[in-house]
Predict the structure.
Amino acid sequence: MTSITRRGLGLVAAGAALGLPGIARAQGITMNLGHVLSATSAYQVIFERFKELAAQRTNGRVTVNIQGGGAAGNEGRLIQSLRTGVIDGAFVGGSSLETVVRDYRVLSLPYIFDDHPQANRVLQGPIGEELLKELEPLGMMGLGFGAIFERNIAGRRAIRTPADLQGLKIRVLQTPGFVEAYRVLGTQPTPMAYGEVFLALQNGVVDALEISNDAVVADRFVEVIQHYALTKVHQSTTVFAVSGARFRALPADVQATLRTAAKEAIQHGLAAHDRLNVEGLAAVRARGVAVTEPDLEPFKVIARRSYDTILAEAPNGRAWVERINAAKARA
């Protein structure tokens, strides 16, 4: 069994040049996939299902190794590894991809989607497929959008109106869309490494963080918060991406099989994430945390003032907003 190493890629290329597909087909194929989340996350669920399907449908020709929990590096490193062919595939956040795919800033616009079911419907359709093509000039290929993480506000203060956000020191994802949205909403957005947030919140360095229902429980933030507000400011996207060079070097039949396996695995993972989302919110309530469901319209009016700044460096940002809005109307 050989990995898709540089030597392996050379053998595949040589076989193709000589018109000998049997050389590629005879090689066992190992795919190394990475992600940064836990063994119970939607990322892991999707990759485990993909691993099963890949083995079954290629009669054991493809073996998948999964490196979770950041073992293959943080998301910035994973993206670089995909672009340079160091790793075969990874799950990465759409917000992390903004650094290299500037039009992906549209996915970090506050309230671009109403909720995560709507975001899933749009991104699992033609709009999602077209957005994935944006990865190809940058050395990557997208096999699909994964779970959508609906981001709410967890902290020490009840949030019922935009006035309650004024001066709030809140940890946000380190991406222009998140920072600008929360700045416009009147908070003090504070990017920091995720691993530092628990102690920062416990010690009062920050007042709150924006986070998803499943993570607020899985990562124990329920132990240090008193309030959880369903503000739904962002629907944080995730992408199953592969190295363009490595994937194209595979036999055509294997590529087709893996694309289908990825789509089926993602659907399996979406259902699992929906359960985690519901269970997470129930667990927050069960721990005695006060949950508020504010009227979102006043938040939306203010947050959307951030659009011009967020889209300033997205070459086709406005066009993508129009297309997403049209897709939402159809979804």
Q: What stands out?
A: The chain has two domains: 2-101+114-148+238-267, 150-236+278-330. Residues 2-101+114-148+238-267 form a domain with the D-Maltodextrin-Binding Protein; domain 2 fold (CATH 3.40.190.170).
